[in-house]
Design brief:
heterodimer, A: mainly alpha, two-stranded antiparallel ribbon, 22 helices, globular, B: 326 residues, alpha/beta, D-Maltodextrin-Binding Protein, domain 2, 2 domains, 6-stranded mixed β-sheet, 11 helices, 17% strand
Chain lengths: 499, 326
């Protein structure tokens, strides 16, 4: 109890509150810029936090990342350019809503469910961090292999059109993921002697190209005619949220739950959480056919999931010093520097600091409501800009963002090439989202597969040898079998009717 | 009106253009310095570079920007350092991999492709096992490894042919075993390997003790020995291989600052002095101690010979382990 009071005193200090406010604005800016990710926001904050006491240092990171993950939704909905990878899963859906005149509703849903999802994540972090960390630490490469397989299955739910085209897109993504030094034997693949290609195909640069550049190309054709529709939608972002709450409260809880769990698993963060919860939402929806046409249901799941994953990732980081995602990988370093060595003892040795971090998490999520609202209002002015000016400026941001990913022109060239490729794919009705998913999960899939084979000396049964791995493996195989059966039956049924 | 303004603008641009080289010839550094890190944000190398960067900034009076050039097992970043203009405005943090990658045939770059400035850190590998492993000490583990058939034990800590893989091979060979007697499971670094150890997927992790620290503190793993000439004061309870098994084998990962080849001597001197002050500062000492990282100082000349020796011994070890190509 005394520690909690101390924590309040630590957080509600003018300097700390100032740091929180400043990093909130910083986080919103970074998140809304395509290509500048929440991870990058954290990395940029590290040198600043060197010279701060522990609480403001961690407060800066917590606040900036919470803001950035939400802010990524704004350009996703307005321009079809996910600001961070965590918004990629539902950028298409949000943009479709905008084109149907529902930008207000979409932004309101993104904001409110991000805040609520974030709070659920914090609640889980506060209440059952040690318990969940105990589960997460038991995941070996066998479990991760099946998790990657399940993740890939989502690709089928991400494509509205032909599932075959979804799978095709996924396979292209997996192929692109093999470029670079292979993760097991250390041999360069498809690099053609080019040093830059050794780092592989950067997925953020690819994502910017595939979503933003392909959209720019389409817009460039109609630059004089299109445009006006979006600007008209100025109004109250909080209107119409009541019915969404009543209708989709279960989606929200499910999305937050999935998000927190995936966040807590080492190596999987907010982006994968959004992909999986979006796919789950579609799989169990009563209105599957509406997905992809500007339907709010999947957005509720996914936007809650990515914000809750943020807090989830702190669970293994605090309890075992194992990063839950790329952000907490940096946080762990900061924890050590501030003498708050991660481990179960951190809760005993420095409870006031840990409670302060929890408090900051809650505060940051609450602060997101007014600041996010202001950001939406501000971003809307951007849409009033004439499109012949707006499009080049977007291109400029895409270039800055992709340069920042690799710190070289390689990122820019990759982004532009992928933009053309993405445009080509979409013109042929092949969705790009599964390709990004393949690129994200490709390395995990390959690496865990090879690790499993090495560990088990080539014995396939070992993939099912552990309780969790076995359960996940059987679940994956059953899902695939059902999909194949359904596809075969679906093809045959019309034929039977004909005869 | 318009032509005059345009002419004035052109004159101004020309003036700036002429002025820049003149400035560059003057004092070093005349503009912000780029510090390239071949590894990702958040890792130990990144953190070390960022503290050094902020201390250098104070000393040099110019911003020092830490730039992560990741990927390709370190090839991308190391090559960016080597190919930069050698004017001291682009320097980088070299890691032990520069003495290893070219033996694997991944790159042409080697220690002699750089102008060394200073060595700042070295960390020896440790031998970590899970908390509930049935080996009381390193002797029990060594006996168990020797008495079981090859491939019974599985170890990890980094990628195939990485520094911690080499450490394992070196240790096994020093015990008179084959380098692949313990099977190596490549991983993305020490943290995933420690997770795999705690999850029961593997038996041994040969990363450095600071990298294993969180799991040690959490009571999930134990450190049985380090492969160094003497104990680390941060982890004084962990014995060396020499005092337990009588094996005088030591190796380690190191980090230092260097620039492209042919960097002018005055620049190297200026940087070296600034780095020495950064190394001696309380901030650096406290930071390295808080992370459990070892601190070692070698000046430009010392770092050069250190790298040459590291290159030689790594090549020998990799050939012996069958990891070298060509």
């Amino acid at each position: 109890m005394e520690a909690i009071l101390q924590a309040f005193a630590l957080v509600f200090d003018p300097f700390v509150l100032g740091v929180i406010l400043a990093s909130a604005v910083f986080g919103l800016f970074v998140g809304a810029m395509p290509g500048l990710t929440a991870t990058m926001a954290t990395a940029l904050l590290v040198p600043v936090t060197f010279f701060m006491p522990p609480v403001p240092a961690l407060a800066a990171i917590v606040t900036a990342t919470a803001m950035a993950i939400f802010a990524g939704d704004i350009p996703g909905a307005m321009l079809r350019m996910p600001g961070t990878p965590a918004s990629a899963a539902y950028a298409d859906e949000s943009y479709a809503m905008t084109r149907r005149g529902q930008l207000n509703l979409n932004m309101g849903v993104n904001l409110v469910f991000s805040v609520a999802g974030g709070l659920i994540g914090v609640a889980v972090l506060v209440l059952c961090a040690p318990l969940l960390a105990e589960v997460a630490i038991n995941f070996s490469s066998y479990e991760y292999f099946w998790l990657a397989c399940l993740g890939l299955t989502c690709a089928v739910f991400l494509s509205n059109a032909d599932p075959v085209k979804g799978v095709l897109s996924l396979l292209i993504g997996l192929l692109l993921a093999t470029v670079g030094i292979d993760p097991s034997a250390g041999v360069p693949r498809f690099t053609f002697g080019e040093v830059e290609l050794m780092q592989g195909v950067n997925f953020v640069a690819t994502m910017i190209g595939m979503f933003a550049i392909s959209e720019l190309l389409r817009n460039a054709v109609t630059v004089r005619s299109a445009g006006g529709a979006v600007v008209e939608q100025v109004g109250d972002v909080f209107r119409g949220l009541g019915p969404v709450w009543r209708r989709y409260w279960f989606n929200f809880l499910r999305g937050s739950g999935i998000g927190t769990l995936i966040g807590a698993l080492p190596g999987a963060g907010a982006d994968i959480a959004a992909w999986i919860s979006y796919a789950v939402s579609k799989r169990f929806s009563r209105e599957k056919e509406k997905f992809g046409t500007g339907h709010v249901e999947g957005v509720v799941d996914a936007t809650a999931a990515n914000n809750s994953a943020l807090a989830g990732a702190w669970i293994p980081a605090l309890v075992f010093g194992i990063p839950g995602d790329s952000i907490t990988a940096i946080v762990i370093g900061v924890l050590y520097m501030k003498g708050m060595n991660p481990g179960p003892t951190v809760f005993l040795e420095n409870p006031q600091f840990i409670y302060a971090v929890f408090l900051v998490f809650i505060l940051a999520n609450l602060l997101l409501l007014p600041l996010g609202w202001a950001a939406i209002k501000g971003a809307r002015q951007v849409l009033r800009t004439p499109r012949e000016l707006l499009l080049p400026v977007i291109l400029l941001f895409c270039i800055v963002g992709s340069f920042a990913m690799t710190n070289s022109l390689y990122g820019v060239s990759l982004m532009l090439a992928m933009g053309l490729f993405g445009w080509f794919l979409e013109e042929h009705g092949i969705p790009v989202a599964p390709l990004i998913l393949g690129l994200v999960l490709g390395e995990m899939l390959e690496q865990t597969f090879v690790q499993n084979m090495i560990k088990a000396d080539g014995d396939w049964l070992a993939f099912f040898s552990r309780p969790i791995a076995g359960t996940l493996g059987v679940a994956t195989l059953v899902t695939w079998a059902l999909m194949v059966v359904r596809a075969v039956v679906g093809v045959r049924a019309p034929k039977l009717q004909v005869t | 009106m318009v032509p005059t303004r345009r002419r004035a603008l052109l004159a101004a641009i020309a003036g700036v253009g002429l002025a820049t080289p003149a400035l560059a010839q003057g004092r070093y550094p005349s503009r912000p310095v780029q510090l390239i890190v071949p590894w990702g944000a958040g890792g130990g190398t990144d953190a070390t570079a960022r503290i050094i960067g902020s201390l250098l900034e104070r000393d040099l009076g110019q911003p020092v920007n830490v730039v992560n050039r990741t990927g390709g097992s370190g090839v991308v970043g190391h090559s960016a350092i080597a190919t930069a203009p050698p004017d001291g405005h682009t320097i980088g943090m070299l890691t032990v991999e520069i003495a290893m990658m070219h033996w694997q045939g991944l790159t042409e770059l080697k220690p002699s492709s750089y102008t060394p400035v200073a060595l700042l850190n070295q960390d020896p590998p440790g031998v970590q096992v899970a908390q509930n492993a049935p080996y009381a000490d390193i002797r029990a583990l060594a006996e168990a490894i020797k008495s079981r058939p090859a491939g019974t034990f599985r170890a990890s800590g980094t990628g195939q042919g990485g520094i911690w893989h080499l450490a394992l091979v070196g240790w096994l060979q020093a015990m008179g075993l084959r380098g692949d007697h313990v099977r190596w499971v490549p991983s993305n670094g020490a943290a995933p390997a420690m997770q795999e150890l705690a999850a029961g997927g593997i038996e041994i992790v040969t990363c450095s003790v600071p990298e294993a620290r969180a799991m040690l503190d959490a009571g999930r793993a134990r450190s049985l020995a380090i492969m160094a000439p003497e104990r680390n004061p941060q982890f004084a309870q962990v014995p060396t291989l020499n005092e337990t098994l009588g094996i005088n084998y030591s190796t380690g990962a190191w980090r230092g600052i260097a620039g492209p080849r042919n960097m002018p001597a005055p620049v190297v001197t200026r940087l070296g002095e600034a780095l020495k002050r950064a190394y001696d500062s309380n901030e650096y000492k406290e930071f390295m101690a808080s992370r459990g990282f070892g601190t070692v100082w070698r000046d430009a000349e010392g770092f050069g010979s250190f790298m040459a020796e590291s290159d030689r011994s790594m090549g020998e070890a990799m050939r012996a382990a069958g990891l070298a190509r060509g």
